[in-house]
Amino acid sequence: ANMAESEERRHQPGDEGEPSYGTQATRGPDKPLRAICDPNHLSHRVVVLAFMCFLGFGSYFCFDNPAALQTQVIKDLDLNTAKFMQLYAWYSWPNVVLCFFGGFLIDRVFGIRLGTIIFSLFVCVGQVIFATGALVNRFWLCEVGRFVFGNSIGGESLAVAQNTYAVNWFKGKELNLVFGLQLSMARLGSTVNMNIMGSVYSRITDLVGSPGHFTLGISLMIGGLPCLFSLLCALVLGFLDRRAEKILHKEEGKTGEVIKLTDVKDFPLPLWLIFIICVGYYVAIFPFIGLGQVFFIEKFNFSPAEARAVNSIVYIISAPASPVLGFLVDKTGRNVIWVLIAVVTTLAAHMMLAFTFWNPWIAMSVLGASYSLLACVLLPMVAFVVPEHQVGTAYGFMQSIQNLGLALIAMAAGTILDTRGYLILEVFFCTCVCISLMAVVALYFVDYLRGGSLNRSSSARASLLKEAEE
């Protein structure tokens, strides 16, 4: 689930002065290639873009397989909610450490092409182990599968690889659109998972004759097919990138990320407040979605299909809204105010779900819009408060504590639900958002006392940048 945010927030690797596959190159006396085969031509790069977008589809599809089949997983494997949420905790634990090393593995160990294939392969292996655990009714094996799955994209390694490919091929005016399309495809993977896995389980039940752990395992195996497709995309991308390197005489892409843990001691107060906002906010989003299906069934008497649909609306809205809201923020600036709006509206959505019986489509739609807005606004703020040489470390540390928070809150949420029920769980999520809200208010005043750099308008920020260049 945090993999989609890294696509928005990562600094584009490389310098603007470096050549990319989007620039013209001469091939001497060789016969000109057809447009669809020419790495310089837009039509060829559109083909490459299609494979880039589907590269992360499988991992995002499988990440929320447990949420899409919450009722079935708990019943068929004889779990309580706390053990069910361990499936999310085991995904997050490896990312607490590995988030610092995605760029290093790509740049220094594997290279972009082999690294992408290896990360995609780990996604497939993790999903197969998870499904096998269900097939043989061994929950510990399911946990191992989720751990391997988490390792496969530890530190958003697959997202880093995806972004590196994007920069190599689309550096220039098309790049922002490319990142927006990649993020939208990631959200589409999550949405499709939420809305079809229940039907897949029902079809397998009809074929097998009865529900149970074997039916669940087969369903999860089928759910892993998008991972195989993403692996195929990684193989094709590697071939096309290697071919372009030979034709255009370019070097293999680098992430350009530099991470030094010693930089942590120099982080300013505004950055620590941004970390608190990030953790307090996201722990009230992803664990809630992981538990949301049964909540909508029990409180609002929704059918399983209706519950899955309303639970996926956050991802559905985020797919088209993220690039639009990002464009709006780019034009207006005032990042702290936008973060405040996102956090307040998220708190309002959780309070509606907790204390009213209003149609949950209203609250979940508000939650989806707020989530999209915060992802567009909060993460780029990191680059405004730390020097350029510390940006990689800041983002890595941010991902580390976010995954630590998600792992701990996932376990806490399961325990609260088992012992106290959904109302207390929603109060708990509201408390997390309130912590985030207090950090936003503190950030506003700290930034104001320091000159208001985070809350400048886009025109004021552009003027300062122009003066610095002169």
UniProtKB/TrEMBL annotation:
It comes from Tetraodon nigroviridis (Spotted green pufferfish). Belongs to the major facilitator superfamily. PANTHER family: MAJOR FACILITATOR SUPERFAMILY DOMAIN-CONTAINING PROTEIN 1. It comes from the Eukaryota. Homodimer. Interacts with lysosomal protein GLMP (via lumenal domain); the interaction starts while both proteins are still in the endoplasmic reticulum and is required for stabilization of MFSD1 in lysosomes but has no direct effect on its targeting to lysosomes or transporter activity. Residues 1-14 have a biased composition (Basic and acidic residues). It holds the Pfam family MFS_1. It catalyses: L-aspartyl-L-lysine(out) = L-aspartyl-L-lysine(in); L-lysyl-L-alpha-amino acid(out) = L-lysyl-L-alpha-amino acid(in); L-lysyl-glycine(out) = L-lysyl-glycine(in); L-alpha-aminoacyl-L-arginine(out) = L-alpha-aminoacyl-L-arginine(in). Keywords: Lysosome, Membrane, Transmembrane, Transmembrane helix, Transport. One of its GO terms (molecular function) is transmembrane transporter activity. The chain crosses the membrane at residues 46-68, 88-106, 118-140, 216-240, 269-289, 309-329, 336-355, 361-385, 397-417, 423-446. This is Lysosomal dipeptide transporter MFSD1. It is found in: Lysosome membrane. Residues 45-450 form the Major facilitator superfamily (MFS) profile domain. One of its GO terms (cellular component) is lysosomal membrane. Lysosomal dipeptide uniporter that selectively exports lysine, arginine or histidine-containing dipeptides with a net positive charge from the lysosome lumen into the cytosol. Could play a role in a specific type of protein O-glycosylation indirectly regulating macrophages migration and tissue invasion. Also essential for liver homeostasis. Gene3D superfamilies: MFS general substrate transporter like domains. Residues 1-30 are annotated as: Disordered. It is a multi-pass membrane protein.
